[in-house]
């Protein structure tokens, strides 16, 4: 029963992938050659890969550097810096992009895209690496020093190998986000696969061309996932000792304290103050009439309702998969869990395009309805719910069930008094993460939302596309306000990554 | 309180047989320890009795009521059997009071008096009632788990290695508190353990399990003095096993002609002595000659490793502070009788299972060198 449910969830998650593979097979080799082997595709490929590579490099440097300063150096105010370095996650990349382009219209270049996207995504590297730094056992470094290694050799031979998994995970997340990024790059007029797919879809509704571009994008995603698995290897770094790791003494910066502070302040100013400042600027002096409060309230209401429905649905869907992954460990469970991760690593535009095509062809009565939109949200954000649900199931071993039974509690009674209370925090956390992801989702919503349904993201998008920056700003401000609490929570639970 | 009767119980997981026909009777009000090395099936037996798993064949009866086997399968919740798991297994989302009253009918769950009564029964303060489980020490968690199991007044209480996660000092106190609580509640109890000292000191009968089978069921003293075979002998305490020739009711071996416990036929045999039966005398004394090879000093007593003149090593446990020096020549005298086993009996390695010294088994040769 549970297996069947989890299999249905996995099938839904893989639906876009299967659709694209099937479509490619239908088009045939000659069709693929005609649609893919074009100068335009080569140009998009070059744009996309150089942006992804550049962003990963910049984010790795910024993320590891900032993480080292916060976790291991004597720089003053480390807790505050930590929160400030996670805070950019509360600003969606397309809002950040809007802020920069509205202040500096000349940013529509590779350098501009690299700057904006890196500033939005470096926390994806910073968070896992800072957690890894904190988890490093100082005893290992002391042992290495005792064996006669220099400070730099200790970093290279002891710390870096232990950071590798965290760093690679962060870099993969950045690369996947760059491949999936649509709003920020469209606003900067930097063409990549996502923007090209969108333009193709909007301009000609040309199914084959858009779908083939999506196919190339999917291939890039799969290559990335494979590369990460290969690079990470199968070796884990298991601690051999038991008990809590004692905190390491911070490295004294002495004369380098001031430059370190300037560097951190500069990074926070660019990543946080610029977008917030721009929003404040447009809010203050944007439109003479002030924001349309009624419209803003209605849009916020729609967004919250959609997000709540998606959170409930996705968490419910995560339950069988998360349950199996713990209670029935084995190939099947792992396969079903990985299927959802694979499905969600596809860009939103690909998922949306697949669902548009499928719903028109197979279920025309569902085209542009809320259920299809919710399905897209579920495919995109399932892992955010599965990871905490799984952790919660791990916290509730079958032993509690046995004990409750021996105390005379029936099946339904056990569910009510033991299982659900133990799972509740995990279900809540999963639902909250999905909720917040939906609030700032732009791409899939643009393609799939029923006509006349506007969310904060799409309302912001149409206003800013019309260069009505003042009208767009209030929507962005509400999105940032809604995302802020989750970001604070994220900075507290550093051990968990931003997304699985 | 009720008795527990297990008859011909078998259980296999896949192709692996875990229990191969276990018969066991625990009298009402008794405290029985299920003793065995890890993997002998003792936890499986406990789970079958509790009703968490179904046996392949055989029956389980609580009092006169068959609860498993013979076409009956009473679910765990209707068996009225209390269960105390390893590490307590307290519900983390409930307070101490919430845990203790979990098995009570709804209207009695708010009864603070009952909570205080049960806490007092296991020797805990009533003001612990509102703590969360994670705020308790390991020993307190075990006692609360016992109070929770006793609250619905079960016919039988099962304890699954409840003291193994506690450190030595806490373990003693917790054991005593659990024994007192069980006696006060008048409950029949079955304790699973791999710790022979725990089984011998707590239970009034010990069931030794080995390879999915009950090997011996008797009171602790008989188990130690007259183990069923050499393996059981080695498992319940340190042993000195020697080849011997039985002649006219005496066992002739490297330690001399020893009196035999009970009747033994003439011919080759193996004899069992306990190290505390060995006494050391002056070099020119009457007994067998030996060289002191190593001395392990434990405070309350000591273990002396002795190399016999004819080769071979035996150990003696000595009280007091008058200890021989390493390298000293001594003679060995034996107090009491030797227990005989057939000559073909498997030689059991000496097992040092005293909890105070567990983990200190070492190679005496290395020590002497």
Care to describe what's here?
The complex is a heterodimer of chains A (500) and B (369). Helix content of chain A is 78%, strand content 0%. With 500 residues, chain A is mainly α. The longest helix of chain A is centred in the N-terminal third of the chain and has 35 residues, at 2-36. With 369 residues, chain B is an alpha+beta fold. Chain B is globular. The relative contact order of chain B is 0.12. Mean pLDDT of chain B is 86; it is low at 347-369.
Rg calculated over all Cα atoms of chain A: 24 Å
Mean pLDDT of chain B: 86
CATH architecture of the largest domain in chain A: Orthogonal Bundle
What's the number of structural domains of chain B? 2
| Major sheet of chain B | 6 strands, mixed
N-C termini distance of chain B: 58 Å
Q: Can you say what the CATH homologous superfamily of the largest domain in chain A is?
A: MetI-like
CATH topology of the largest domain in chain A: MetI-like fold
Quick description:
The complex is a heterodimer of chains A (500) and B (369). Chain A is mostly helical.
Helices and strands in order, then pairings?
The complex is a heterodimer of chains A (about 500) and B (about 375).
Chain A (H helix, E strand, L loop, with lengths): L1 H35 L2 H34 L5 H9 L6 H11 L6 H26 L2 H9 L4 H30 L2 H5 L5 H12 L2 H26 L24 H29 L7 H35 L3 H14 L3 H14 L8 H25 L3 H9 L4 H29 L3 H6 L7 H10 L3 H24 L8
Helix pairs in contact in A: 1-10, 1-12, 1-13, 1-14, 2-3, 2-5, 2-7, 4-5, 4-11, 5-7, 6-7, 7-10, 9-10, 10-14, 11-20, 12-13, 12-15, 12-17, 13-15, 14-15, 15-17, 16-17, 17-20, 19-20
Chain B lengths: L3 E10 L2 E11 L4 E5 L6 H9 L6 E6 L2 E5 L2 E2 L7 E4 L11 H5 L11 H10 L16 H13 L5 E5 L7 H18 L2 E6 L2 H7 L2 E6 L2 E6 L1 H6 L4 H7 L3 E8 L2 E4 L2 E4 L7 E7 L4 E4 L6 E10 L3 E8 L4 E7 L9 E6 L4 E4 L21 H5 L1
Parallel strand pairs in B: 3-9, 3-10, 7-8, 8-9
Antiparallel strand pairs in B: 1-2, 1-4, 4-5, 5-6, 10-11, 12-13, 12-15, 13-14, 15-21, 16-20, 17-18, 17-20, 18-19
Helix pairs in contact in B: 4-5
């Amino acid at each position: 029963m549970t297996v069947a449910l989890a299999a249905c969830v996995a099938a839904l998650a893989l639906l876009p992938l299967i659709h694209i593979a099937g479509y490619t097979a239908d088009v045939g080799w000659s069709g693929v050659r005609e649609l893919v082997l074009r100068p335009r595709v080569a140009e998009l490929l070059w744009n996309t890969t150089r942006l992804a590579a550049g962003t990963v490099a910049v984010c790795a440097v910024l993320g590891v550097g900032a993480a080292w300063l916060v976790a291991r150096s004597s720089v003053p105010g480390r807790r505050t810096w930590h929160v400030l370095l996670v805070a950019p996650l509360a600003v969606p990349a397309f809002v950040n992009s809007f802020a920069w382009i509205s202040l500096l219209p000349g940013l529509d270049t590779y350098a501009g895209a690299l700057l904006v996207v890196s500033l939005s995504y470096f926390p994806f590297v910073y968070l896992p690496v800072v957690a890894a730094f904190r988890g490093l056992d100082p005893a290992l470094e002391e042992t290495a020093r005792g064996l006669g290694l220099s400070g730099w050799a200790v970093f290279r031979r002891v710390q870096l190998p232990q950071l590798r998994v965290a760093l690679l995970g962060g870099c993969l997340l950045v690369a996947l986000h760059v491949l999936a990024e649509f709003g920020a790059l469209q606003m900067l007029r930097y063409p990549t696969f996502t923007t090209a797919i969108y333009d193709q879809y909007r301009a000609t509704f040309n199914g084959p061309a858009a779908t083939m571009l999506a196919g190339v994008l999917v291939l890039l995603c799969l290559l990335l996932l494979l590369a990460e698995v290969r690079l990470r290897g199968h070796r884990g770094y298991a601690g051999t000792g038991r008990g809590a790791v004692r905190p390491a003494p911070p490295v004294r910066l002495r004369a380098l304290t001031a430059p370190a502070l300037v560097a951190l302040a500069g990074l926070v100013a660019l990543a946080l103050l610029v977008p917030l400042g721009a929003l404040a600027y447009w809010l203050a002096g944007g439109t003479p009439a002030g924001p349309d409060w009624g419209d803003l309230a209605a849009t916020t209401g729609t967004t919250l309702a959609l997000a709540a429905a998606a959170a409930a649905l996705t968490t419910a869907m995560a339950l069988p998969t998360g349950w199996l992954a713990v209670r029935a460990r084995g190939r099947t469970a792992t396969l079903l869990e990985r299927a959802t991760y694979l499905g969600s690593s596809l860009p939103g535009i690909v998922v949306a395009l697949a669902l548009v095509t499928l719903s028109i062809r197979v279920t025309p009565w569902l085209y542009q309805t809320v259920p299809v939109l919710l399905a897209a949200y579920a495919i995109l954000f399932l892992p955010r719910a599965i990871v905490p649900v799984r952790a919660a199931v791990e916290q509730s071993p079958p032993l509690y069930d046995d004990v409750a039974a021996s105390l005379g509690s029936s099946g339904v009674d056990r569910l009510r008094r033991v299982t659900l209370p133990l799972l509740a925090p995990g279900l809540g956390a999963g639902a909250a993460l999905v909720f917040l992801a939906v609030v700032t989702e732009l791409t899939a919503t643009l393609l799939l939302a029923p006509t006349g349904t506007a969310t904060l993201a799409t309302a912001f998008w149409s206003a800013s596309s019309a260069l009505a920056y003042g009208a767009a700003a209030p929507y962005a401000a509400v999105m940032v306000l809604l995302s802020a609490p989750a970001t604070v929570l994220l900075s507290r639970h550093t051990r968990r990554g931003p997304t699985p | 309180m009720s008795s527990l009767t297990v008859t011909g119980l078998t259980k296999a997981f896949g192709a692996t047989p875990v229990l191969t026909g276990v018969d066991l009777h625990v009298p009402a009000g008794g405290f029985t320890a299920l003793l065995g090395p890890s993997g002998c099936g003792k936890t499986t037996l406990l789970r079958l009795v509790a009703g968490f798993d179904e046996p392949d064949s055989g029956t389980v009866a609580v009092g006169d009521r068959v609860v498993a086997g013979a076409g009956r399968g009473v679910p765990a919740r209707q068996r009225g059997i209390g269960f105390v798991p390893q590490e307590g297994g307290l519900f983390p989302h409930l307070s101490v009071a919430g845990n203790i009253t979990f098995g009570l009918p709804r209207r009695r769950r708010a009864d603070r008096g009952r909570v205080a009564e049960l806490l007092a029964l296991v020797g805990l303060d009533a003001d612990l009632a509102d703590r969360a489980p994670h705020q308790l020490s390991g020993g307190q968690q075990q006692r609360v788990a016992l109070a929770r199991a006793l609250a619905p007044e079960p016919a039988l209480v099962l304890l699954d290695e409840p003291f193994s996660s506690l450190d030595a000092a806490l373990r003693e106190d917790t054991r005593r508190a659990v024994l007192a609580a069980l006696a006060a509640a008048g409950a029949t109890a079955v304790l699973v353990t791999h710790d022979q000292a725990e089984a011998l000191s707590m239970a009034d009968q010990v069931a030794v399990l080995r390879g999915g089978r009950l090997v011996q069921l008797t009171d602790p003293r008989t188990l130690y003095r007259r183990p069923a075979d050499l393996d059981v002998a080695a498992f319940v305490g340190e042993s000195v096993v020697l080849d011997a020739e039985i002649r006219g009711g005496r066992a002739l071996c490297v330690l001399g002609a020893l009196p035999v416990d009970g009747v033994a036929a003439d011919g080759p045999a193996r004899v069992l002595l306990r190290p505390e039966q060995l006494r050391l005398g002056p070099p020119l004394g009457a007994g067998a000659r030996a060289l002191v090879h190593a001395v392990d000093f434990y405070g309350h007593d000591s273990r002396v490793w002795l190399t016999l003149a004819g080769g071979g090593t035996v150990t003696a446990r000595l009280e007091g502070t008058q200890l021989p020096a390493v390298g000293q020549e001594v003679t060995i005298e034996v107090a009491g009788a030797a227990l005989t086993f057939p000559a073909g009996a498997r030689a059991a390695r000496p097992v040092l299972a005293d909890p105070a010294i567990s983990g200190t088994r070492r190679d005496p040769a290395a020590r002497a060198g």
